[in-house]
């Protein structure tokens, strides 16, 4: 890829809670063998499209750190700088945290659980809404990540389904209604090229 302002987003590889169909939130399970393979596949995609990553940003949770480190290693750049920050952590699922999703649906009802999972402003009991998550993700993006991208340091964000949805909502200029149907799978890679005014010039999506 030619010199440009590139921002790559990837959801961490599968964790043990993902494999168990449980709400993870701020719990800190490690990656499964499949999750490590998904991280390696991200490195392959980055090499195939010719995007040399200069910096990795990830959350403070181990599943993103393991993903980031595996990507860096498989790119042949184990010393690639990685910045971890809790601003990129998954949303807090409150009372849903640790529960099997089927159990949660049986307790609160499938439609209610789905609204908590996908809506913009509904929070589960004791937890965060997507709006709450965006309130910490976006300042970190503007203050720490965007300046790197604008100086042509191709940056990779390794984060979570909802912290990435919060960012995608802004990058893609999605409405609160449109974000409901937006989902990012484990190991999925999104690559943005930004204009000089920081808006999106183009976007490519790579599924696992």
Automatic annotation (TrEMBL):
It holds the Pfam family His_Phos_1. Its EC number is 5.4.2.11. The keyword Calcium does not apply. One of its GO terms (biological process) is gluconeogenesis. Pathway: Carbohydrate degradation; glycolysis; pyruvate from D-glyceraldehyde 3-phosphate: step 3/5. The keyword Isomerase applies. One of its GO terms (molecular function) is phosphoglycerate mutase activity. SUPFAM superfamilies: Phosphoglycerate mutase-like (SSF53254). Keywords: Gluconeogenesis, Glycolysis, Isomerase. This is 2,3-bisphosphoglycerate-dependent phosphoglycerate mutase. It catalyses: (2R)-2-phosphoglycerate = (2R)-3-phosphoglycerate. Belongs to the phosphoglycerate mutase family. BPG-dependent PGAM subfamily. Transmembrane segments: none annotated. Substrate binds at residues 11-18, 24-25, 63, 90-93, 101, 117-118, 161-162. The record marks 160 as: Transition state stabilizer. Homodimer. InterPro entries: His_Pase_superF_clade-1 (IPR013078), His_PPase_superfam (IPR029033), PG/BPGM_mutase_AS (IPR001345), Phosphogly_mut1 (IPR005952). Catalyzes the interconversion of 2-phosphoglycerate and 3-phosphoglycerate. The active site is at 12 (tele-phosphohistidine intermediate), 90 (proton donor/acceptor). Signal peptide: none annotated. It comes from Eoetvoesiella caeni. It comes from the Bacteria.
